[in-house]
């Protein structure tokens, strides 16, 4: 049975254990066009992660046709190196627009029910998982860590309920969308917001919130939580209010480049976001794209990300690696980690 099916209990313990039990490693990536050469998987396997997270655009299937979408997923599943990874570590994911079925799509997409069914089929979501019993792919996964610690994954759905974007009258240098404001403007929708509020009450050690689109960056005008500023503030406020002891991390994809952002919340706690994109598609955005919260220089070539959780120190380290598995960005720096 593939490792991604180890979900019989609410808290799971996967079979891969780090060499010294002091480190838990989460690898992540996004934007994997099944029709392009996916040479990056051996580097991800060589990094020996304990878990892999797909952050969206896991395939490119802009279609309303079930057969075409299934063929896209099946082509990814047939890639031998990806299948090897799938056989040894659990893989969880969210979708973005191209595996949802419509570029920049939201709740208006007519085939979203079909797309959700195909998503669950590929990720082999258990039949009794609550995510299968309601609209939208959002879900919680709890992972037992060494030293009695618990990792909580909150996998958000930024597509199924999202209200329309607001196009700019003319495309700007760093994007094409204006602000969506008012009571009808939403990314998560009412039911997912209520679910998130409940899940944030859980006492855990490490919380990873997965959003296919960026949360912290707010200076570009591409898709992102910044285009829904009231939703963004609501999310940041909820994360800040969710407890002093938990370490919260954001993961995102979508942008066809990698970067690391960090802000200090009103409580004084730091919130860091690792954006890693893409596994096959890269070169997104301009080199001078602003991001007031960036703490590590953007990386424009193909990449995958890693979050290393130091169990003893209760600290996370964020890394971007290239197709050869070489470290290209890290935060905190090696000196700061020591």
- Separate helix tally: 8
Number of structurally distinct domains? 1
Largest sheet: 8 strands, mixed
CATH class: Alpha Beta
Give the helices and strands as they follow along the chain. Answer: EEHEHHEHHEEEEHEHEEEEEEEH
Q: Helix share of residues?
A: 10-25%
Mean pLDDT: 93
Shape: globular
Give me the side-by-side strand order of the main sheet.
Answer: 1-5-6-9-10-12-11-13
In angstroms, what is the radius of gyration? 18 Å
Quote the beta fraction: 25-35%
Number of strands: 16
Q: Low-confidence runs (pLDDT<50, min 5 residues)?
A: 1-19
* CATH level-3 fold name: Purple Acid Phosphatase, chain A, domain 2
What's the N-to-C terminus distance?
A: 39 Å
Q: Which structural class fits the helix and strand makeup?
A: alpha/beta
CATH superfamily: Alkaline phosphatase D (PhoD)
Named CATH architecture = 4-Layer Sandwich
Would you give an account of this structure?
The chain has about 350 residues and is an alpha/beta fold. The protein is built from eight helices and 16 strands. The protein is globular, with a radius of gyration of 18 Å. The termini are far apart.
Show the helix and strand layout:
Elements: E1 11-12, E2 23-29, H1 41-46, E3 51-54, H2 66-77, H3 80-88, E4 91-93, H4 97-100, H5 112-123, E5 139-144, E6 150-155, E7 167-172, E8 175-177, H6 189-199, E9 206-210, H7 229-240, E10 247-252, E11 258-264, E12 270-275, E13 294-299, E14 304-310, E15 315-321, E16 327-331, H8 334-337
Parallel strand pairs: 1-5, 2-3, 3-4, 6-9, 9-10, 10-12
Antiparallel strand pairs: 2-14, 5-6, 7-8, 11-12, 11-13, 14-15, 15-16
């Amino acid at each position: 049975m593939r490792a991604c099916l180890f979900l019989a209990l609410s808290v799971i313990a996967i079979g891969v254990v780090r060499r010294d039990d002091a480190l838990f490693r989460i690898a992540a990536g996004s934007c994997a066009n099944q029709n392009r050469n996916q040479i990056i998987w051996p580097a991800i396997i060589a990094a020996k992660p304990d878990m892999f997270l797909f952050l969206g655009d896991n395939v490119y299937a802009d279609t309303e046709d079930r057969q075409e979408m299934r063929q896209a997923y099946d082509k990814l599943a047939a890639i031998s190196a990806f299948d090897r990874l799938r056989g040894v570590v659990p893989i969880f994911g969210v979708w973005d627009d191209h595996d949802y079925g419509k570029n920049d799509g939201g709740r208006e997409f007519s085939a979203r029910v079909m797309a959700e069914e195909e998503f669950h089929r590929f990720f082999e979501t258990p039949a009794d998982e609550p995510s299968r019993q309601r609209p939208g792919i959002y879900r919680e996964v709890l992972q037992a860590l060494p030293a009695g610690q618990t990792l909580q994954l909150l996998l958000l759905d930024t597509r199924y309920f999202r209200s329309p974007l607001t196009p700019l009258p003319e495309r700007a240098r760093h994007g094409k969308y204006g602000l969506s404001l008012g009571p009808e403007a939403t990314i998560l929708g009412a039911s997912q917001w209520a679910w998130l509020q409940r899940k944030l009450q859980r006492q855990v050690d490490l919380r990873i919130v997965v959003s296919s689109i960026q949360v912290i960056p707010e200076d570009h005008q591409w898709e992102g939580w910044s285009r829904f500023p009231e939703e963004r503030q609501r999310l940041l406020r909820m994360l800040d209010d969710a407890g002093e002891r938990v370490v919260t991390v954001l993961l995102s994809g979508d942008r066809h480049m990698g970067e690391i952002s960090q802000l200090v919340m009103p409580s004084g706690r730091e919130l860091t976001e690792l954006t890693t994109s893409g596994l096959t598609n890269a070169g997104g955005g301009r080199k001078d794209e602003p991001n007031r919260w960036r703490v590590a220089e953007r990386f424009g070539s193909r990449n995958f990300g890693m979050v290393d959780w130091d169990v003893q120190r209760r600290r996370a380290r964020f890394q971007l690696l290239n197709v050869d598995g070489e470290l290209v960005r890290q935060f905190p720096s090696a000196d700061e980690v020591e």
